[in-house]
């Protein structure tokens, strides 16, 4: 099984598994409870908070894709992160997280730390000296998010995992941006992989969900126990939908990336576009590490708009094929202004520290025709140029 390629695992998991009617596509089980076959005989599934066939299939697909031993499907990516800290950290323990992590992750860790649930330190994980100093404090958990959001900065997973082992810390990688199609953190030494399946895994912007995949059986069981205990599990319908979206993950990821590379070369020729952030660019600080640990560069990119702030707003509002919206990884192209949208909860000081300026725009390149997307960017930039 595990020698199969990601696209095959994504398509085949659960196909022809129905024993009642031999449905080719696995049916949906909405029942909240399951009969005990006999007195004292506990069935595989008894109550949907603890387990469900649709969730089970999605779990299997995702842990096989990531090369893990088990997975827990949660009701969103944030709750996967919350489950992870709930299961493995206590009041005196320290967690090290990236200073440019997803805004909701920052809010979750910061708020819980302020309540005294644990200690947290947000570190620039691309800065070797800062990371070494943080590790010297013997953290219990380390979260990596690579490439990061929105500046797609790249952290050397293998190197951090080796350092973490020496101080006895467990490492989780938020792999939302690349998916197992382009990056498999467990094979680089990580203990856990976390996804917001809301993004590329489901891929159609119609389900909120999350997953945490464990490298060991023991960790997988601990997390499943905690998911049942705190009520973090996802619903059967959402798992059904997410597995349906997952089927096309391989071809989607390739198409997203192909279009991104075309858009990148267009953007590079434009005077109104300043610094561009994407791991494929040789000038990108993480380019070499990305080539080593990723099998693709992914399709999230961001750039500084080199006109005025007013012109930036004009540029964004004149686009027809990039919707001004949060989230990412769906079939539809999106444009986001992180400072006033996804990352606004960080506050000015943290934004500045993370290098997220008011001129920064982030694109999630969808599956529309790349030429149409470029033509759309072009008409809007031209309007700005002609109306300066
Ligand atoms: C969206 C996102 C999350 C949070 O996931 P939700 O499903 O919105 O709760 C966490 N990490 C990254 C990188 C994300 O993009």
Strand content: 5-15%
List SSEs in N-to-C order: HHEHEHEHEHEHEEHHHEHEHEEHEH
- Structural category is alpha/beta
What is the CATH topology of the largest domain?
Aspartate Aminotransferase, domain 2
Using the alpha-carbon principal axes, give the shape: globular
What is the tally of helical segments? Answer: 14
Rg result: 21 Å
CATH superfamily label of the largest domain? Type I PLP-dependent aspartate aminotransferase-like (Major domain)
- Enumerate the distinct ligands: pyridoxal-5'-phosphate
- Total strands: the figure is 12
Name given to the CATH architecture of the largest domain: 3-Layer(aba) Sandwich
Largest sheet: 7 strands, mixed
Please estimate the helix content: 25-40%
Explain what this protein looks like in three dimensions.
With 388 residues, the protein is of the alpha/beta class. The protein folds into two domains: 6-246, Aspartate Aminotransferase, domain 2; 250-386, Aspartate Aminotransferase, domain 1. Helices cover 39% and strands 14% of the residues. The chain has helices spanning 6-12, 53-66, 77-88, 103-114, 128-135, 157-166, 179-182, 217-230, 236-246, 249-268, 287-293, 309-317, 347-354, 370-386, and strands at 70-74, 94-98, 119-123, 141-145, 170-174, 192-196, 210-214, 273-277, 300-305, 323-324, 334-336, 360-364. The strands form two sheets. It has a seven-stranded mixed beta sheet, with helices on both faces. A five-stranded mixed beta sheet has the order 8-9-12-11-10. The N and C termini lie far apart (59 Å). The model has no long low-confidence stretch (mean pLDDT 96). The chain binds pyridoxal-5'-phosphate. Residues 76-78, 102, 104-105, 145, 149, 174, 176, 196, 198-199, 208, 210 line the site of pyridoxal-5'-phosphate. This is Cystathionine gamma-synthase.
